Amino acid sequence: MNLRQVLTNSLNVLMMLFGVFMSYKAWGLYTNCESPLVVVLSGSMEPAFERGDILFLSNPKKAIDIGEICVFKIPGRDIPIVHRVIDRHDSPETGGQLLLTKGDNNNADDRGLYQELYVNRGKMWIEPKDVVGRVQGFLPYLGMFTIFMTDYPLLKYALLGGVGLVVFLYE
Amino acid sequence: MTTETQPRAIKVDKSNLLDLKSACDDALKEYLETKGGYKQSHKHTDIKLVLGYLGCAFAGAGSYYGYIHPFELPATKFWTGVSVVLYYLFNVLMMAYAYLVEKDTIFTGSKTTPHGTQTISVGSSVKSYNPYYDIHLHMDVAGSPSSTTSLKGKKSTHQEFSTAFQYWFDEDGVLAQEQFEADIIKFLANTEATHIE
Q1: B49, A8: Cβ pair inside 8 Å?
Q2: Of B7 and A129, the one with more pLDDT
Q3: Cβ–Cβ of A22/B77 closer than 8 Å?
Q4: DSSP string, chain B
Q5: Whole-angstrom Cα distance, residue B187 to residue B193?
Q6: What interface predicted TM-score (ipTM) does this complex get?
Q7: Which end of chain A has less neighbouring CB within 10 Å, N or C?
Q8: Could you tell me the maximum CA-CA distance found in chain B, to the nearest angstrom?
Q9: Number of residue pairs across A and B with CB atoms under 8 Å?
C-alpha cells in the first residue's frame, strides 16, 4: 500500500467519524443544548424513565415550567441528574428563576442533593443556568449500550479498534 | 533462473460486476504504467485528498475550540457553527469534484513520443446487469517544435470501446493477462492511429 492509498483510506475513516460528530454538533446548535442526547443512569425517575433510556434534550427560550423534566448539574458534581421541576419562583425584573426538583421515584425533594457538598451549604434552589437541557422525548433501552461501554472500558477499546481495523483494511 | 517476477494471477468472483470492473481497472492501470510507458498523474486523487483533509482540519479545529470554551458563550456557538458549515462545505466540494470533474476516470497520464507529449485519460464503467466493460479513451498529442513529424499544435481524439468480460475471464474468474493486454494494445493503437493523417 502506497502513501496515497493510506491517506485515502484514513481520510475515509476520518470523514465518517467527523460526519457523525459534526451532525451531533449541528444538532446541539439547533437545540441550543451542548449535549442533546443523554442516557439515564439511575432509577430515580421510574416509572417514566428507566436506567438505560436515551433522552432527547433541548433548551427553548421560554421559562422552565413546573412538571418539566430537566437534566441539570449541581455545581461541584460532575454527573448530571434528570429530575422533575416541582416548584418555581420567577423574578420578573431579571427574568431569573429559582427551581426545586425531585425525582418521581424518590421520597424527598433534591435539597439534600443540592447541599451534599459543603460549598453548597444553604443552597435551596437551582437556577436555569444549572440546567443542561429539558427533556423533549425518549427512546427506551437503547442507552444500555453506552452503559456497558462505560462499565467495561475494555469493550469500548476492543470495539473501536476492531471497527477501525476492518474499515481500514477493507476500503 | 529468471530475474523477472511472475505477476500474480488476478482472480475475482465472476458474478460480481464491480469486482470484474475493478480487476480490469487495476490491470489496465498496471499496463499503462509499465508497458504503456505512461507516467501517472495523481491530480484527481490529490485534489480530493486536499479538500477532504481541509474539511477535517476545520472540523477538528472547531471541535477543539468547542471543547475548551464553555458552550453557553455566543462566541463558542458561533465558531462551532462555522466549523460545521465549513466541514460540510468541503465535504460537498469533494463529492462535487468526484462527480463532475473526475467522473469515471481511472487513469490519467502522459508520455513523450516522437510526435510530442501524449496524454491519455481513461474512464471505465459498467452498466447494471450488463457484463460489458465500457472504456473511453481520451488522447491528446501536443506536438513540440522539435518533433520529427509534421504534427504541430495539439490534436485530441476520443474513442470508446466495449468488450464483454467473457473474453478475458475464465470459468474460475481468473483474468487472462495476455488476452487482456492484447485487446488493450489494440484499443490504444486504434486511438493513436486517428492522430496520424
Answers
A1: yes
A2: A129
A3: no
A4: ---SPPPPPPB--TT-HHHHHHHHHHHHHHHHHTTT-PEEP-HHHHHHHHHHHHHHHHHHHHHHHHHHS-TTSHHHHHHHHHHHHHHHHHHHHHHHIIIIIITTEEEEEEEEETTEEEEEEEEEE--TT--EEEEEEEEEEE--TT-SSS--SEEEEEEEEEEEGGGTB-TT-BB-HHHHHHHHHHHHHHHHHTT--
A5: 10
A6: 0.81
A7: N
A8: 74
A9: 49
Coil, strand or helix at A42: coil
With a pLDDT cut of 90, the percent of chain B lying above it is 53
A78 carries an active-site annotation: no
- Would you call A25 and B80 a contact, using CB atoms and an 8 Å cutoff? yes
| Domains in chain A with CATH codes | 3-23+35-169 (2.10.109.10)
Annotated catalytic, A58? no
Arithmetic mean of pLDDT, A89-110: 91
| Mutation choice for A interface testing from B30, B51, B56 by most A CBs within 10 A | B56
* Cα nearest neighbour of B72 on chain A: A34
- Does the pLDDT at position B152 exceed 80? no
Question: Which residues of chain B neighbour A11 with C-beta distances below 8 Å?
Answer: 49, 52-53, 56
B13 exposure class (CB count in 10 Å sphere: 0-12, 13-18, 19+): exposed
**Residue that the C-alpha cell 443552597 belongs to:** A123
The answer to whether residue A44 is catalytic is yes
